[in-house]
Amino acid sequence: MRCRLAICFLLWAFATATCGGAAPCDTGLEALVRVVGGQFYRGSIDKLASADAPGVVDVLNSQNVITPGLQDKQLSGRLNPGSTAVAIGFAGDIGYWILAADVPDADSPTQPTFHSSLSFSDSLPQTSYDLLVRAVSTPNDFGPAAHVSLDVEPSLPPTGALVVSLWWDTEADLDLHVVDPYGVEIWAGNINSYDRYATTPAPDAGVLDEDGILDFDSNSGCVIDGRCNENVVWSLAAPVGDYVARVDTFSLCGNSAARWTVEALLNGISLDKAEGEALPSSQRFSKGKGSGVTALSFTVASP
């Protein structure tokens, strides 16, 4: 079981001491790194080591290069006996995250493990970061840090024959909907324009990379990932005809508004661009196919 009695007690003790008992805990949205399922605490992870606390046995990290807005980066490892949680955070950041330890692996039956999913701020500067991982045994006992060096490279905009992009400026859940010339609507509920049951399918419709594809459902269900960007991309060729791009405000996630921009690029050249604002009244739509406000209507002409 992931949260054993000792681990649950440890996290309860942390929450009670830091969050004031029943008071809402800090969400840590301004932190440069976020740990899915972890609890955020303000303060420096750099200075938390205790003399007799257990340490980290090893850290498994498959990639040392990250990009701003990257989400779901996996980080795992083993902890020395006596560890009930792990602390993870960037050196010099505004805080760190506590995540309950997992049960030991079969080949190391005395060493608790941890398995974490990290996401990174979309405003992450292009530099190198020292990610610190510390074993935790009690709310006041943090072991020596294991260091993971991460280099930030700029995230590149998607490329393709036709790219329709949506950006917004707050931690809200907005959705991009694009209707292609065949009447197929591409959105989070239908991420690929290929329709195997269409009576008049697009030419070469069975080749998936020739169809429009939604790259990511950002901030889905108000699980904030830091991207605030969605793109529908036709990699090889865009069907000739008329398109419509809409913006659906699934949820403002507690924000008062979200300003958005939608742009259509054909072979890197802008066809059209629009800006708008999502308000609380914008959340009234059905949240499914056909929802949202029209941002752009544009045409892809024959070559």
Number of helices: 1
Strand content: 35-45%
User: Mean pLDDT score, rounded?
Assistant: 85
Order of helices and strands: HEEEEEEEEEEEEEEEEEEEE
User: Architecture of the largest domain, CATH level 2?
Assistant: Sandwich
Number of domains: 2
Shape, please?
Answer: elongated
Fraction of helical residues: under 10%
Question: CATH first level of the largest domain: which class?
Answer: Mainly Beta
Question: pLDDT under 50 segments (min length 5)?
Answer: 1-13, 196-208
C-alpha end-to-end distance: 60 Å
Which structural category fits the helices and strands? mainly beta
Q: What is the count of β-strands? A: 20
Question: What is the third-level CATH name, the topology of the largest domain?
Answer: Immunoglobulin-like
Radius of gyration: 23 Å
Sheet with most strands: 7 strands, mixed
CATH H-tier superfamily of the largest domain:
Immunoglobulins
Characterization of the model:
With 303 residues, the chain is mostly beta strands. The protein folds into 2 domains: 5-152, Immunoglobulins (Immunoglobulin-like, Sandwich); 162-300, no CATH class. Helix content is 5%, strand content 41%. It is built from 1 helix and 20 strands. It has one helix at residues 5-19; strands at 33-35, 39-42, 56-60, 65-66, 73-79, 85-90, 95-100, 113-120, 128-138, 141-142, 146-152, 162-168, 173-179, 185-186, 212-214, 229-234, 241-251, 258-266, 269-278, 293-300. The strands form 4 sheets. Strands 2, 4, 6, 7, 9, 10 and 11 form a 7-stranded mixed beta sheet that branches. It has a 5-stranded antiparallel beta sheet with strand order 15-16-12-18-19, with no helix packed on it. Strands 1-8-5-3 form a 4-stranded antiparallel beta sheet, with no helix packed on it. The longest helix is centred in the N-terminal third of the chain and has 15 residues, at 5-19. It is elongated, with a radius of gyration of 23 Å. The model is unreliable at 1-13 and 196-208 (pLDDT under 50).
